[in-house]
Amino acid sequence: MRGLMPLLLAVAAALPGAAATLERLTLDEMIQQSTAIVRGRVSAAGSLQRGPLIYSRWRIQVAERWKGPAGSEAEVLTPGGTFQGIRQSFSGVPALKEGAEYVFFLWTGRSGLTQIIGLSQGLFDLGRDSSGRLVVTRPASGETLLDPKSGAVVEDQPVRMRLSEMQGRIRSALAAVGQ
Fold first, then answer.
1. Ordered domains of the chain (ranges, CATH)
2. Which of the residues 56, 117, 159, 178 could staple to 107 if both were Cys, CB 3.0 to 4.6 A apart?
3. Distance, CA of 124 to CA of 138 (rounded, Å)
4. Is beta strand 134-138 parallel, antiparallel or unpaired with respect to 159-162?
5. Are 41 and 100 in contact (CB under 8 A)?
6. How far, in Å, CA of 27 to CA of 170, rounded?
7. Is the dihedral of CA 48, 118, 23, 144 positive or negative?
8. Is the dihedral of CA 60, 65, 71, 75 positive or negative?
9. Which residues contact 145 (CB under 8 A, 6 or more apart)?
10. What is the pLDDT of residues 14-55, one digit of tens each?
C-alpha cells in the first residue's frame, strides 16, 4: 500500500477538481517519516514551475528544529499556486500565510523538493490557549484518508495539544529509534 500511495496522489493531483486520497498518518508516523520537523514563521512566498506542475514556494524562518539538518531557514513547496499567469490548485493542500507561525513536519524526496508530509496532516498552527501557553492545532482533514494497513477509508480527527506535549512526543519517538 505504501508504494501505491505516491501513484494515487499523482493521479488525484492530475484530475481537475478531484479530491485527494491520502494515507492517514499518526503523529508518531509523521515523526518517523519526516526528514525534518521545525517550528517556524513563514517569511516569504513565491512560486515556481517544475514540469507541468506549479508550486507555491514558502521561506520559513526556523525558530526550533527537532529533526533534520541544521539551519535557520527552510524552503517548503506546496503543490499549486500561480506562475506567469497560470493558476493550479489541488485538494488537500494546506493554506499557509505569510507571518504565521507553524510546526512543520517536512519530507524531502529524491527530487530534492521539500514538502509538508501528508499535505495538511503535517502542518500545525501555533497559537496560545486562554492561559497563554503555546498550543498546536490542526483541524480534521476533509480529504479521503486510507488506513495504511487495511486500505479502508478512515476519518481524521482534529488535533490540539500544548506545544510542550508535542515536543515531548517528538523527543520520545526519536529516542525510541536512536535518532
1. 5-176 (2.40.50.120)
2. 117
3. 5
4. antiparallel
5. yes
6. 9
7. negative
8. negative
9. 21, 22, 23, 24, 153, 154, 155, 156
10. 444 445 678 889 999 999 999 999 999 999 999 999 999 999
